[in-house]
Amino acid sequence: MNKRLLNTGAQKFITEKLNADIVSVLLKPPPFEGITPKELAQQIASKKKCRLKLPTWFKTEGIYYPESLSIEQASSEVTAEYKAELVDGKSLVDITGGFGVDSFFFSQKMENVWHCEINHELSQIATHNFKTLGAKRIESRAINGIDFVLSSQKKFHWLYIDPSRRNENKEKVFLLSDCSPDVPAYLDQLLDKRDHILLKTSPLLDISAGLEELHFVRELHGLAVNNEVKELLWIIDKSSTARIHIKTINISKGERQQFSFYHDSEKEAISQFDNPLKYLYEPNAAIMKAGGFKSVGINYSIKKLHQNTHLFTSDALIPFPGRRFEIIENIPYNKKSIKSLELNKANIATRNFPVTVAEIRKKYKIKEGGDSYMFFITNQSGDFRVLLCKKP
């Protein structure tokens, strides 16, 4: 950590060059003594990544930025705020602290937060930023978080773990056992040191695989932002013998779509099916990831189009945690029917359909965009259909 980068002149330069070509910064002679062009370029690139993801950091003067990868791996403010809502009590250890975004928001809820980061420079950066941001309830430890917890005599209320999803070659990994730390390997030892564990995993992790590797899971939260799943959050409690409660959240424009169900109930539920009626419903990405297809249909009393076509229909328009459409046309999938629609622009989606969106666009010369929505589906009879829709 080069503290000269925090000098007024360097900070002004970084702010002024946010929209500049990074290559031009790298090629020019260093404008400040003791600061290389590479260091300036890295600060500029990392700060730019925070503009939308971490606006509090971006707007605060005197923030020191790590390499871009640390920003990419950090939680966004939106998801960190949500995680802070899930914890309570007095003490929390952030075992894999990183840039410190989650620790910062946890400190607004907990009396004491320990930020553990094995990378000494990153720990130093996070510590500086905590002071700059006025976060007073965080104690930093440049140490392996697992070792810190297991060697401590304290019994913490919460442990938070966000395992690194990069291997030694910095390639992405998704299985829990391939991440660092290997949470399943340490889980029993960690459960002796805490009341609760909050585990963040990749949205690409298969939920069934996660449930096989983990035990004592009380809740699973599928968290999406603007209909893109960002995190899977596992609440683990050794004293819990309850059914696994799955909660889905989609945060968009400051609003939340929420839907929850129980894992065993979803397995036992029986869907009702029908052909497309007047309205079409598409569950949001969080529900889709969590696999609550039967539960959402039963809860909202809407019919499914096919066992593997995760779209629903009804005669009356109802509130729904996802997108809603009015069906204008329901036609067979053939060239004559599609040509009769006389569409040269539409938003196209396929569900349980053997042809890709790209192939459909090429074959029928339909461009992206417009106010029309086309769903290419398989119905309950196994027929391929095209539903032309509009927003209600």
Task: Walk me through this protein's architecture.
By secondary structure, this protein is an alpha/beta fold. It is built from 16 helices and 16 strands. The model has no long low-confidence stretch (mean pLDDT 93).
Estimated helix fraction: 25-40%
Strand percentage lies at 25-35%
Whole-number mean pLDDT: 93
Distance between the termini: 54 Å
Task: Give the strand line-up of the largest sheet.
Answer: 3-2-1-4-5-7-6-8-9
What are the segments in which pLDDT stays under 50 over at least 5 consecutive residues? none
Sheet with the most strands?
Answer: 9 strands, mixed
Q: How many DSSP E strands? A: 16
**What structural category characterises the helix and strand content?**
alpha/beta
Number of helices: 16
What is the fold's blueprint, element by element?
Layout: H1 8-16, H2 22-27, H3 37-53, H4 55-59, H5 68-73, H6 77-85, E1 91-94, H7 101-106, E2 112-116, H8 120-133, E3 138-141, H9 145-151, E4 156-161, H10 183-191, E5 194-201, H11 207-213, E6 217-225, E7 228-236, E8 245-252, E9 255-262, H12 263-268, E10 279-283, H13 285-290, H14 293-299, E11 303-306, E12 309-314, E13 322-332, H15 335-340, E14 347-351, H16 357-364, E15 373-378, E16 384-390
Parallel strand pairs: 1-2, 1-4, 2-3, 4-5, 6-8, 14-15
Antiparallel strand pairs: 5-7, 6-7, 8-9, 10-12, 10-13, 11-12, 13-16, 15-16
